[in-house]
C-alpha cells in the first residue's frame, strides 16, 4: 500500500497544483477591482522603501521623510501625466472635423493611386466602413479609463499607508526582503528606460511637428513595460497620426526608422546592460505570463506580468514541492 501511495504521489501533487492554480485564477478575476490597486500599492511601497533607504544611506535623510518625499513625487507625477493625457484627448476631440477632412483627402489619394494601377476599389464601401470605425468611442473609452485610474488613486493611497504602517511594526522575513530588492531594482530600471524611450519619442515626433506628440510619448512610456510586444506597438502608434497629417511621405518613413532605432538601442543594449539577466525568467514563460495576466487583469495585467511572475517564481523556489515549477519558470526543464 505504501509503494502504491508513493508511486502516485507526483500525480497527486500535480493535480493539487492544477486545482490550486485554477482556484487562484478565479480569485484573481473575481477580486480584480480590489486586488489590482493593492498590487500597485505594493509595488509603489517597494520603490518608495528602496528609495528612502538609499536616501538615508547616501544623504542621511530620515527614513520617514524619504517616504513622504517619494510619495509626494509619485502623486505629482501621476497628476502631471493625467493632465497631459486629458489635454491631448481634448485637443484630439476638438479637432475631429479637421481629422475627418484629412482622412477623406487621404482616401481620395489612395483611390486615385489605385486607379492609376488599374485597381478597382469600391469607394462607397470604403467610406461607409471608415464611418463605422469606433475611433471616437475608443478615444472616449481611453478617457474613461484614465478617469477610472485617477479615481482609484485614493484607494491605492490608503493601501500604501497601511502597508507602511505594517512595515514599521513588523520585522521583514528574508523572502520579503529578497522580493523587495529584486522587484524594486527591476521597476527602477524599467521606469528609467521607459522614461528615456518616452523622451526620445517626444523629441522625434516634435522634430516633424507631429500632433499629439505628448500623448504618444506617454503611451510609449506605458507600453514599454509590456515585454516584446509593447515597443512594437509604441513604434507603430504614431503612424496613423502622421498619415492623417502628411499622408504617405518621408515623415512616416523617418519617424519609423528613428523610433525603431530608439527602441532597439534602449531595449536590446541599455536595458540588457542594466538589468543583466533580469528576473531570470525564460523568454517563452515571459510571453505566456503576458498572455495569462492580460486575460486575467487586462492591460494592467500585461504591464505587471513580469514582476508578478518573478514573485511567484521566488516563492516557489522556497518550497521543495514547487521547486520544479520554479526551475521551469527560470528556464530549467529538468524535473527531478
Description:
The structure is a single chain. This protein has a domain at 34-170. The protein is built from 16 helices and no strands. The protein is mostly helical. The mean pLDDT is 80.
Give a brief rundown of this model.
The protein is an all-alpha fold. Helix content is 83%, strand content 0%. It has helices at 2-7, 9-30, 32-59, 63-94, 96-116, 123-132, 135-151, 153-168, 174-207, 213-223, 229-236, 238-246, 250-275, 283-303, 305-316, 323-329.
For the secondary structure, the number of strands is 0
User: How far is the first residue's CA from the last residue's CA?
Assistant: 23 Å
Our count of helices gives 16
Can you write the helix and strand succession as a string? HHHHHHHHHHHHHHHH
What percentage of the residues does DSSP assign to strands (E)?
under 5%
Largest sheet descriptor = none
Can you tell me the residue ranges where pLDDT is under 50 for at least 5 consecutive residues? none
What characteristic shape results from the CA principal axes? Answer: globular
Could you name the key traits of this structure?
336 residues, mainly alpha
Summarize the helices and strands and which ones pair or pack.
Elements: H1 2-7, H2 9-30, H3 32-59, H4 63-94, H5 96-116, H6 123-132, H7 135-151, H8 153-168, H9 174-207, H10 213-223, H11 229-236, H12 238-246, H13 250-275, H14 283-303, H15 305-316, H16 323-329
Helix pairs in contact: 3-4, 3-8, 3-9, 4-7, 9-10, 9-13, 9-15, 10-11, 11-13, 12-13, 15-16
